[in-house]
Design goal:
The structure holds 2 protein chains of 2 kinds.
Chain A: H1 2-5, E1 11-14, H2 20-33, H3 39-52, E2 57-59, E3 61-63, E4 77-90, E5 93-102, H4 110-120, H5 123-131, H6 135-151
Parallel strand pairs in A: 1-4, 3-5
Antiparallel strand pairs in A: 2-3, 4-5
Helix pairs in contact in A: 2-3, 4-6, 5-6
Chain B: E1 2-7, H1 13-28, E2 33-38, H2 39-42, E3 49-52, H3 54-57, E4 66-69, H4 76-83
Parallel strand pairs in B: 1-2, 1-3, 3-4
The chains are: A alpha/beta, B alpha/beta.
């Protein structure tokens, strides 16, 4: 499920960004271009972090910014940005992987998120994704991590 | 025992944390009702334990129940360690 949603054209690599806001704009850009989300969804994600703090950093180095379906989501989507140099959401919270989630309701994205936990439950797998130098490699690693568990 | 996992929108992080709370409970051999919701709904919902990122659960009134803040939502050992004395 995760690799069907997080397709290769939604995975990006960058060396660095200047701010966490920029990282979210960049990470979400494939979804905006594909018209899965409106620009205002991107702003809603940023606003949510400004309001509640960076609670979307679910484990060190990994953030999953998201807002509500009503903030301008047309189609369920997910995109990933891998930063070579971390961006700081707070002075103690460096992030290298930004995974944007655009949900259309309360349920249809849950299997993809469950799959995502299989990727993020192992810090070595996270470091391995950060070390990847190509979009295809990231996609293949994620596929490997998510199928390994479901067949075993 | 009811555990409510809370996040800003009730869509992403709270669901991931809910899965990991269930794994932690299983590892502890304990049983509890676990569900996830957004902050606004959590303010109106009764539970024994409210659990989430510090930024979020600190917004809840303290008299509602036990509040547990989690730093690393993917860390089963952190969740286990914080829940165990409360179960």
């Amino acid at each position: 499920m995760l690799t069907r949603l997080l397709t290769k054209d939604c995975i990006q690599l960058a060396n660095f960004v200047h701010s966490w806001q920029e990282s979210i704009y960049l990470a979400a850009s494939p979804l905006v271009q594909q018209n899965k989300i409106e620009q205002r969804y991107v702003e809603a994600m940023i606003q949510s972090i400004e309001q509640y703090g960076p609670y979307i950093i679910i484990t060190p180095k990994v953030a999953i910014p998201h807002a509500r379906p009503t903030d301008g989501v047309h189609e369920l989507g997910m995109s990933l940005l891998r930063l070579q140099k971390p961006v700081y959401f707070s002075p103690s919270q460096p992030v290298n992987l930004i995974i944007v989630l655009a949900a259309i309701d309360n349920a249809s994205h849950l299997q993809a998120l469950a799959d995502l936990t299989l990727v993020l439950q192992d810090t070595e797998q996270i470091d391995c994704l950060i070390a990847c130098q190509h979009e295809d490699t990231i996609w293949e690693k994620i596929k490997q991590y998510t199928t390994k568990e479901s067949t075993g | 025992m009811k555990i409510l996992v809370v996040c800003g929108s009730g869509l992403g992080s709270s669901f991931i944390l809910e899965l990991n709370v269930k794994k932690a409970l299983e590892a502890l051999g304990k049983d509890a009702e676990v569900s996830h919701t957004d902050l606004a709904s959590a303010k109106a919902e009764k539970a024994d334990i409210y659990l989430g990122a510090a930024d979020i659960v600190n917004e809840l009134a303290i008299n509602k129940g036990i509040i547990v803040s989690i730093v690393n939502m993917m860390s089963i050992s952190e969740i286990k360690g914080k829940l165990e004395p409360l179960l």
